Amino acid sequence: MTIRGVLFDHVAVAAEDQHQLWPRYVGDLGGRWIGGGGTVGFFSAQVSYANAMRLEVLEPYQVERNDFLRRFLDRNGPGPHHLTFKVPDLGAALEEADGAGYSPVGVDMSDPGWQEAFLHPKDAPGIVVQLARSSHEGQWSSPPPAEVATLPTGPSAALIHVAHALCRPADGTRLFAGLLGGEQVAAGAGWLDLDWPGGNRVRLLDASGSGPLADWVGSRPGRLHHLGFLCEEPGTIAGAKPTADDGLWTVEPEENLGVRLLLTSDPDLFQQGRLGY
Questions:
Q1: Is residue 276 part of a domain?
Q2: Which positions ≥6 away from 120 have C-beta within 8 Å?
Q3: What strand order describes the sheet that includes 241-242?
């Protein structure tokens, strides 16, 4: 069962205060502001990178009316929150998901302009997956807040991939390739790259067996491991440290509000599957 016409739209990260994130994702990495706004439970805003991949930031907002993000942060702290895949027909997508053995939650089709449903991390596995249909593509925009508009920025980096580690890699291919239709474009020892139209990519990492990656995933079915950025001078990014693989730099989650970054100026290192961990 495969959902037709899927597009990988963005990765979302959560923090107590969005303003903590802009120096990194706009200032250091050159994300270009798209828009933002508040709704019950959360405030969200998005930036776009050189390859048009988007990153969304979330912070709690009006939590007395909807506390889902508040509970997430209390339980997990700041860090990766979800991956969003756009579909042309949410009703048909839900039928495919159900037929493939998934159980979507939070289904909301009340607004014809924005319809959504979610796969729980226990189902996904290990990450919230949002399925969404929007009839307002390209219309969501707003001026950036002053602290974003005044940030000095260099060239925009490219968000090459979102890397997700799985204790059972087959669960990842079943979801991302099977249900969501990602096309395998590269593979190597312990990793697999899936691509969607537009070039947005998920890298699946094999965290089965033993070793540092398996220890890091622990008892979870999976964890979002890093965001891979191609940028001109990775060594100048705040908190970046060189890895054992020459040309790769890492910003550890402790230095970046729960999100690990893998940085390089050499696209071949990512294409060769150089992992840096």
A1: no
A2: 103, 105, 128
A3: 183-188, 191-195, 201-206, 158-166, 222-230, 261-264, 248-251, 241-242
pLDDT reading at 275 higher than 80: no
Asked whether the predicted pLDDT for residue 201 surpasses 70, the reply is yes
Q: Give residues with Cβ within 8 angstroms of 175, minimum separation 6.
A: 102, 119, 124, 125, 129
| Closest CA relative to residue 13, chosen from 61, 59, 57, 48 | 57
In angstroms, the CA 73 to CA 75 distance is 5
Cα torsion angle, 156, 160, 162, 167, sign: negative
Task: Read off the amino acid at residue 195.
Answer: D
Residue 18 contacts residue 59 (beta carbons within 8 Å):
yes
* Phi then psi dihedrals of residue 121, to 5 deg: -55, -30
| Paired tokens of 126 | 């290990």
Q: Closest Cα to residue 162, out of 187, 118, 194? A: 194
Greater confidence (189 vs 165) lies with 165
* Residues 107 and 230 grouped into a single domain: no
23 and 116 belong to one structural domain: yes
Distance between CA 71 and CA 60 in Å, rounded?
10
Q: Is the pTM of this model over 0.85?
A: yes
CATH number at residue 32: 3.10.180.10
Alpha-helix runs per DSSP H in 34-111: 68-76, 90-99
Contact 203, 161 (CB under 8 A): yes
CA torsion sign for 63, 111, 138, 13 is positive
CA distance 43 to 226: 23
Q: Are both 131 and 230 inside the same structural domain?
A: no
pLDDT computed for residue 270 by the predictor? 85
The residue count for the chain: 277
